[in-house]
Each structure stands twice: as C-alpha cells, then as structure tokens.
Amino acid sequence: MALREIASKPYPDQKAGTAGLRKKVAVFQQPHYLENFLQSIFDVDARLKGSTLVIGGDGRYHNRTAIQTAIAMAAANGVQRVVVGQGGILSTPAASHLIRLRKAGGGFVLTASHNPAGEDGDFGIKYNVAGGGQATETLTDKIYEHSRQITRYKTLEGVYVDLERRGVQTVGGMEVEVVDCVDDYAALMQTLFDFDRIRDWFKRGHSLRFDAMHAVTGPYAQRLFVDMLGAPANSLLNASPLEDFGGGHPDPNLIYAKPLVDLMYSDAAADLGAASDGDGDRNMILGRGTFISPGDSLAMLCAHLHELPGYKRGLSGVARSMPTCRAVDQVAKAMGIPCYETPTGWKFFANLLDARRITLCGEESFGTSSDHTREKDGVWAVLAWLNVLAATHLSVRELAERHWKRYGRHYYVRHDYDELSASVATQVMQSLAGSLVDLPGKHFGDYTVSAADEFSYQDPVDGSVAVNQGLRVVFGDAARLIVRLSGTGTKGATLRLYLERYESQEAALGWKTSDALAPLVGMAEKIVRTAEITGRRAPSVIT
Ligand code: G6P
Ligand code: ZN
Questions:
Q1: Residue in 265, 291, 304 with CA at minimum distance from that of residue 403
Q2: pTM of the entire predicted model
Q3: 509 CA to middle of ligand 2, Å?
Q4: Shortest-distance ligand to the CA of residue 346
Q5: Whole-number Å distance between alpha carbons of 432 and 358
Q6: Domains of the chain, start order
Q7: Nearest atom, ligand 1, residue 113 CA
Q8: Which residues are catalytic?
Q9: Is-contact 23 126, C-beta < 8 A?
Q10: Which backbone phi and psi does 199 adopt, to 5 degrees?
Q11: Residue 434 CA to chain centroid, in angstroms?
Q12: Secondary structure percentages of the chain, helix, strand, coil, to 5
C-alpha cells in the first residue's frame, strides 16, 4: 500500500449547512469531491492525527464507497485507529456515543438525514469532534475556507476493508476495528431506562408500533424493543434498512410517516406509535388518535424525566431552539430550572450540555435528546416515552391532557415553502425584516405585538455569537410567528413559517390544532405576506 499525494483543485461549494455537507450523490461522485472535503478536515483539525476516528453512516447509497475512501485517507493522514460500524452502519446518536466512549479525536457521520437516498438521492457527511458533538460553525467555516484553496489530498493506495468482518484489520500502520453497530448504544440505554418496567408494560399487553422507515434504526429497534424488551415482532414496521430507504422520504412527521399516522388514528392503533428518520436522530410520538408535537414531547419528557433511572438526580436545565414552541419553558419555570433558547441546529446545544447547564434539549424539527450523547436521539426518545408510560400507568392521551391542564397548551404548526428561488425567499425575509421596527404595539385581532426582532444568540459558555437566526414576531406569552430560511435543503430555498398559540383556560385545551391556529394563519399572511410575495397559495408541507 503506497502513500500518495494526489493533486486536486478546489470545489467552491463545500460549505456545511445546518447539519454537515449535503449534496446530491452525483455531486459527491465528482472526481476528488469527497477527498477534498475530508482532506480539509484532516488539515484543519490537528486532533485527528494519532488518535481514534469513528466512522459510520445511515446505510444509504454511496455509504460503503465513501467509507473505503475515508479509511484510506485516515491511514494516510496519521490516524491511529478507525472504529467503524459493521456494514458501515452507525446511527447518528450511536456514532456520537462511540466517539465519547472511545475518547476519539472525532468522527465522520455519513448521512443526509431524512433526505431521500439512492443513486438520484442525496448524500452527506457530518464532522463530529472529540466529545461527540457536531463541529462548531467556527470550525466548519475554517474547513470551508481550506477547501477553497486545497491543492492536494493524501491517501493510501489499494485499501479495502471488509466491513462485514468484526474485529481488527490493519491498513498500513493503522488499525481498523469493525464493531457491532448496536452493542455499545444498547448498553448505554440500559443505564438510562428501567428495562424491567418496560418489559412488564409489554407483558401486560401494551403495544408499540415503531416505523423505522427502511432506514438506520431497524437494527436498533429490533435489538432494543423486540430482543431486549420483549415487544412482539409485529411492533416494528419497515425495519430492514435499504440503500434507497425503499424509495421513501424517511422523515418522521405527519406527512412523510403518514402510514403510521393513519394506523394510529385507526382501530388498529397501538398504545404508542413512533417513527425515526434516515440516520436515527429524529423521532415522532403518537398515542391512539393523538399526535404529540415535538415541542409538547419535549415539555412532557421534561416534566417526567426525573422519574427515570438515569435522571434521578433531576435536570440541571433545558434548552429548545428558538422556533420550537415555548411549552417546555412553562415546565422549566415550574421546576425552577433554567431554560435556554438557541438558534436552530443541534450543534448549539453542545456547549450547554458539555458545561452541564442542561440535561435535556429539543427542537420542533422532531429532535429530542439528553446529555447521554451529543446528538438528538430518536430511539432514546421512544424508550423515554415507553418508560414514562410504564411508570405513570397513563396512556399517551391521558398524559398529554394532564400536562396541558397543569401547564397550558401550545398549539403549534410549521408551514414550509419548498424549492423557492433564492431571490423570492430572500425577498420575503427582507420585507419582513424591514417592517419589524414598526410592529411592536400593533394589534392584529385579539393579539398585540410585544416584540419583533431578528434572533441572535450569544453562547453563554464560550461567548460566541450567531446572528441572523430567523425573524420573530412575539405577542407576549399568547402567540408567536417565526420565519426563517432552512439550512438543510439541497434544492432551491425553503422558507419556514412557524405558528404558535398558547391557551391555559380549560375550555381551550381540546381544540383541533388547525382550528386553533386558523386566526394566526390569517395574521401571518398580513405580516409576512408569503402568498403575496411567493405567489404560492398554500405551503408545500404542513407539519
Ligand atoms: C437538522 C438539524 C436540526 C435542525 C433541522 C432543521 O435535522 O440537525 O438541528 O433543526 O435540521 O433545520 P432547517 O435549517 O432545515 O430548519
Ligand atoms: Zn436525521
């Protein structure tokens, strides 16, 4: 195996978005494209040299090829040991855990999350640093700058690692250890949750339907829910991971996980319905005929987590991304713990978790997790819900109703306008940004604007500042309208409009979400002028 330095020319588009570099497979297949990006990481982050590197992905098309490339380059760049999931598989939270467990210098997580996979689909790569969290924006910016000037990359020729064979293989002077993708993760889950109690819950005839959407969580669900917790095999749907995710769009929400939603609203519903996404970091929670919005799920877990074995010491604090509804704020207030509001993007939670300022965090985009790892964690959320249901002897609906009675209810919806031209999307943002100063004090129906601004965030741990993180129009505690551009799309621009309405009177707790939010939709059109500017009469996706 010869060490080679290969001459290369920069690509202009290797800037990471909200969660890593995501592009069409064909883009990643361009000569030296992946190599340039990886070399930029090796060159910029010196911690990888002489240390352990974790590699794994969600199993989508191009995963195995990319992993062979990454291993050959790791060997050429002085990495001491690569730990890779068998078959190239690791869910995002499991990869983050492995980085922490092995005290690795970092990890490559090969995924484009829930974006469609296959030859014509998307591919992606996220760089996670020592400690398991996603690279900070400062670091990804440096990597991007480097990628624009790159002239060569280093690789070892003739490398082929058998990704099916567990154990250690040698590549040049580097060791490659192929590990089972579930073992360490399952062991961690056993330290957090009361497995006996959940097993009993299933024994008493309670049921689960978990939709793995033909993506990475299949093997995790099989081991944890079925093998370890005794759920019947028919609890799992679409549990075999496929390179093209079965042609689907593995995003656990009301649109893309519709078959599960329909099931949970039918006579065949289970006690708990749940789904996860492509790389296993998202989750959706449903009860019989009941959808628990991600913001509600975060608030409800916040209220109950201290009852579960891994969290007996209580929560140090919680955090949510800015567009996530403020349900968890109510619980935090009642518990007397701090509640942080961060920009969209899981990476913003990392410092708060590392500094032990928070134990639990979540986002409206179907992400929830705790300090056990540095990524959001879909299977963890399902286990947490199973444990809460088993411990409280309540159904999902009963739990939700009790919660709303105590803390009030946040009705919430997100409207996405997909594939807009960049100029139209920018126009919506600029027009709203321009009108923000005039909004405070203005009345819209029963609502009065209390504040309107562009959200910026100063990290309380390292003092770094993130500006331009979305526009918000606040009506006191009663409601909010938020607008921002997505940082994860791969086609055109996606505009997101988030609507939130809070009600605490008992008579107002059982409304249909769409009815509750109808007045806000009207207000949003007046304030944001989405239809007027985009020419779209309705959003492309409502979740
Ligand atoms: C990914 C990130 C999340 C983020 C979500 C939506 O899943 O991990 O942190 O909330 O994308 O981001 P977007 O920028 O598309 O709204
Ligand atoms: Zn994901």
A1: 304
A2: 0.96
A3: 31
A4: 1
A5: 33
A6: 3-181 (3.40.120.10), 185-406 (3.40.120.10), 409-542 (3.30.310.50)
A7: 7
A8: 113
A9: no
A10: -60, -45
A11: 31
A12: 35, 25, 35
Pairing of strands 409-420, 541-542: antiparallel
Per-residue model confidence as pLDDT tens digits over 468-516: 999 999 999 999 999 999 987 767 899 999 999 999 999 999 999 999 9
DSSP result, 8-65: ----S----BTTBEEEEHHHHTSTTHHHHHHHHHHHH-GGGTTSEEEEEE---TTHHH
How many whole angstroms separate alpha carbon 487 and alpha carbon 432?
19
Assigned token pair, 263: 């099931």
Ligand 1 binding residues, C-beta < 6 A: 18-19, 113, 321, 344-346, 363, 365, 367, 486-488, 496
Q: Alpha-carbon dihedral of residues 298, 300, 304, 305, nearest 10 degrees?
A: -10
- Residue ID of nearest Cα to ligand 1 atom 6: 365
Tell which residue, 204, 423, 134, 412, has the closest CA to residue 294. Answer: 412
**Could you tell me if the ipTM is greater than 0.85?**
yes
- Per residue in 148-168, pLDDT (tens digit) is 999 999 999 999 999 999 999
Residues in a beta bridge with 82: 53, 176
- Is the per-residue pLDDT at 450 higher than 70? yes
Interatomic CA distance for residues 485 and 426, integer angstroms:
8
Mean pLDDT confidence for 261-274:
98
